[in-house]
UniProtKB/TrEMBL annotation:
It comes from Favolaschia claudopus. Residues 1-20 form the signal peptide. InterPro entries: DUF4964, Glutaminase_GtaA, GtaA_central, GtaA_N. This is Ricin B-type lectin domain-containing protein. Keywords: Signal.
């Protein structure tokens, strides 16, 4: 991999389109009243939200709901107006400004507040940088404030913004320490920066999902009449500003418990006389830095930004100086997503994806080296696991849509761990660590086991990446280098997918289930995609094998899954009258597999329309709750446009009206619109499923047909036997021996017909045509435990009389279709000295697994 280079609406408001910030290229964005508004959301530990209709009157919180004190006060003509947080609770002489609008874009939350005769715009920008791991790795966010008079007169305006020591630790009984820095020179002057941290640092550990180590960075330019103050009690400092319009520019170094007077760290700017032209824009930077970000198998791993900046000062300097570029990139991305979403499914869909974007990336952070970036995921609010495959899977559409390489960066840690030999199971693991940020693995083969679920998730996500990489050659090299691991998962699925044993799925809160229709579907599609992966990696024999297995399985699945009424599919095989969301149908469409019959999709669409509630379609017949990510996966796979719109509208209705004021929960009730569980999870990246589909990327190429003319009879000759018998032959009646002969003796025992197996591609029964009247004629192989090749009297359905024929060199490989699990599958012959015909594990290049078909 090449080294990466530097840069590459509220209930009281109208629900019509709202005016956008002057910084925006797009004139308007779809209005929405989020359950909770993202303020500074960049990573699992930089995730601060406003859980209310108004920015003022409620304290911002970490995604868990724990308070992260952050306030802003405007002093207009000597009168104090609270703009943000709830400083007025301490009777400091403020009134709350009136909020007049809120605009949500993928990267920004823009509030407009009225303080007397002055309008103030507060823009919270958390950049999303899908094209640059370097830029995306920066755990910092911007706040900008601008003022303008609304009555034609000029008014004196001062602004105070502060954060509390609650940013240093989740436990307010902990002692915080802090410092003031003025060493960072930037364009236009020097930054004044507060750094705050827990006095006792406990690296790589958490309290209430918040880190016990690292440093909070809170900074602004020393300009616009800046005064500052740090470490004093919150209510004292804010009251003094309201009275005096400035701070003392002094640091109180009395380090103490966070809850001891609630020390704050404040900036005050004097904007002077503000008229009808907008004031200077005040810019603040906030974030949390941890140079060593995670552990992997006991070793510390650096944050990715450390590759470019050796300390927080360098990081901050770059981030502040990059502001204008960051705004331009954000505006471009906002417009791209909004335009595409509106075109795909209207304003409600636009609002959904705008709210989901920062949250999706807020569960991720880059670590590692420039040559091998890892995009780590925290399973926020459910288990806190690391790199959970069945959380990456629903989140994958946003990564696929914005930059397919992001999928590879998230898959790399999982692939690395399962390639290391430390994971002992044949199937894929659930995660690489039980508790973020420690990727200790599950070297005992334990953890939360979802064998079919995770194996299928991995293969489908691998296919998504390979379908949309920045470099096809890099993708091909990656697929080839890890092919044996991918094949191991595929072989597990071949054996275990069609009738899944009692096990958990990603919806583990619903409990284990046997013969789950939706789980079986996922596994079948993963097998089908493995056929494409195999072809992409240069394994045409495997490609035909997995393609044919998937075709065979989908036909069986369609029969077993169908309700006795034949009107829809059941939750599990044989559970008549039950139904469920078949959200796993989405990869069939996205990856171009087209395995699911169109009539089946239409039946499911029709069923969903009969059970949809106010806020969407329930997950299944057992409950009224749903999963928002799966709602949009289902919408993207639907063939009925009216159903798609109804699902989109239900999800929008939920985020716009739900009384559950938490960051976008994906698990909620479709009748009441209340949270059932979970919040702030990156799985909302699944809201981008419709946009991912709209890219219309062609699927990976399917395997080349074998080009066997089934109307003809063939002599089968093997290579790698120069001077020796090389014609496939069978004995006369009395034995079922299959061996090699030196010539075509005219008996018919060296002549074979290829009879297509119905419903499968390039799969045939191979029958000898002569010299065996009344005897076995089907070319067959033994089950595992023997590599014998002989003749059988029929196709017994085991798969061992079915052979895949795939082009290889100037001839063909002939492989047993199934019935041999992970045992040798290639028809093969021995070297000279014996005429043995048996099975081998691969085409070894000797020619003895390559056969020429000559019509006779």
């Amino acid at each position: 991999m090449k080294t990466l280079s530097l840069l590459f609406a509220l209930a009281s408001f109208s629900l019509s389109l709202v005016d956008a910030s002057p910084l925006e290229k797009r004139a308007t964005f779809a209005a929405v009243r989020p359950p909770s508004v993202p303020l500074a959301v960049r990573s699992p530990y930089v995730s601060t939200w406003s859980p209310a209709d108004s920015l003022v009157g409620t304290w911002p919180t970490f995604w868990t709901g724990g308070t992260k004190g952050w306030s802003a006060i405007a002093r207009v003509d000597g009168k104090g107006y609270a703009l943000m947080g709830n400083p007025g609770q301490d009777n400091i002489g403020t009134t709350n400004a009136a909020q007049t609008s809120l605009t949500i874009t993928p990267t920004k939350s823009i509030y407009v507040m009225q303080a007397g005769a002055v309008k103030l715009t507060l823009t919270f920008l958390s950049p999303i940088e899908p094209q640059s791991p370097q830029l995306q790795s920066i755990p910092l966010s911007y706040l900008q404030i601008q003022a303008v008079s609304t009555d034609g007169a000029s008014h004196t305006v001062q602004i105070m913004t502060d954060i509390s020591a609650e940013w240093a630790h989740a436990d307010s009984a902990q002692v915080a320490s802090w410092a003031v820095d003025s060493s960072v020179a930037v364009t236009g002057g020097t930054l004044r920066t507060f750094t705050i941290q827990a006095q006792t640092q406990r690296q790589f550990s958490e309290t209430s999902d918040y880190p016990n180590w690292g440093t909070v960075v809170w900074s602004t330019l020393s300009a616009n009449g800046l005064t500052w103050q740090s470490g004093d009690n919150a209510n004292t400092m804010r009251a003094a500003f309201v009275t005096n319009g400035q701070l003392t520019s002094a640091n109180n170094a009395n380090f103490r418990a966070i809850n001891n007077g609630w020390p704050i760290f404040a900036f005050s700017n004097n904007l002077g006389s503000v008229g009808t032209s907008a004031s200077a824009t005040l810019t603040y930077v906030i974030g949390h830095v941890r140079p060593q970000a995670i552990t992997y198998q006991g070793s510390a791993v650096n944050a990715f930004w450390v590759n470019f900046w050796s300390n927080w000062q360098g990081l901050l300097q770059f981030f502040y100086n990059d502001l204008s570029n960051a705004i331009n990139r954000a505006n471009t991305l906002d417009a791209k997503i909004a335009d595409a979403a509106n075109a795909a499914n209207g304003g409600n869909y636009e609002a959904i994806v705008a709210l989901a974007a920062r949250q999706a990336f807020g569960g991720l952070e880059f670590v590692g080296s420039q040559s091998d970036p890892w995009l780590m995921l925290k399973e926020i609010s459910s288990d806190g696991n690391m790199q959970t495959s069945d959380v990456l899977y629903p989140a994958a559409p946003i990564l696929y849509y914005l930059n397919g390489d992001l999928l590879r960066y998230t898959l790399n840690p999982l692939v690395d761990y399962m390639s290391s030999g430390l994971w002992p199971q044949q199937y894929a693991c659930h995660d690489i660590g039980s508790s973020y940020p420690n990727a200790n693995g599950h070297n005992d083969g334990g953890g939360e086991l979802m064998p079919v679920e995770e194996s299928a998730n991995m293969l489908i996500m691998i296919g998504m990446y390979l379908q949309n990489p920045s470099s096809s050659s890099d993708a091909q090299s990656w697929a080839s280098s890890h092919y044996s691991l991918f094949r191991e998962w595929a072989e597990y699925l071949v054996t275990n997918t069609l009738f899944p044993a009692n096990q958990l799925t990603t919806d583990d809160f619903a409990g284990p289930i046997t013969n789950a229709t939706n789980l079986a579907l996922k596994g079948i599609l993963a097998i089908g995609e493995m056929g494409r992966i195999a072809n992409f990696a240069g394994r045409p024999g495997d490609a035909l094998h997995y393609t044919s297995v998937a075709q065979q399985y989908i036909a069986t699945w369609s029969q077993f899954a169908k309700d006795p009424s034949s009107q829809y599919l059941n939750l599990a095989y044989g559970s008549g009258g039950t139904w469920s969301l078949k959200y796993n149908a989405f990869p069939d469409k996205l990856l171009g597999l087209n395995l699911i019959p169109a009539a089946t999709v239409a039946l499911e669409d029709a069923k969903y329309k009969t059970v949809i509630n106010t806020y969407g379609v329930p997950l299944d017949v057992r409950h009224t709750y749903t999963k928002g990510d799966w709602e949009l996966w289902t919408a993207a796979s639907a063939s009925d446009a009216s159903l798609r719109q109804s699902i989109v509208d239900g999800v929008f209705r939920f985020i716009n009206t739900s009384p559950s004021r938490v960051p976008f929960t994906d698990w909620y009730d479709t009748v009441s619109g209340t949270q059932s569980g979970f919040q702030a999870r990156p799985v909302v990246g699944g809201m981008y499923s419709i946009l991912a589909q709209s890219l219309n990327k062609p699927g990976l190429p399917a395997a080349t047909p074998s080009s066997v003319d089934t109307s003809k009879t063939y002599r089968i000759t093997v290579g790698g036997r120069s001077g020796c018998d090389n014609i496939l032959s069978v004995a006369s009646c009395g034995t079922n021996l299959v061996d090699l002969f030196g010539s075509d003796d005219g008996s018919g025992r060296q002549h074979f017909k290829f009879i297509p197996v119905s419903g499968l591609t390039n799969v045939y029964n191979i029958q000898v045509t002569g010299g065996r009247d009344g005897c076995n004629t089907f070319l067959s192989t033994a089950s595992c435990g023997s590599n014998t090749v002989d003749l059988f009297n029929t196709d017994d359905g085991s798969g061992r009389q079915r052979w895949m024929v795939s082009p290889s060199g100037s001839g063909f490989n002939i492989q047993s279709f199934s019935g041999r699990a992970s045992c040798r599958s290639f028809l093969s012959v021995a070297s000279c000295g014996t005429d043995l015909v048996d099975m081998f594990s691969a085409d070894d290049g000797s020619g003895r697994q390559q056969f020429t078909l000559t019509a006779v």
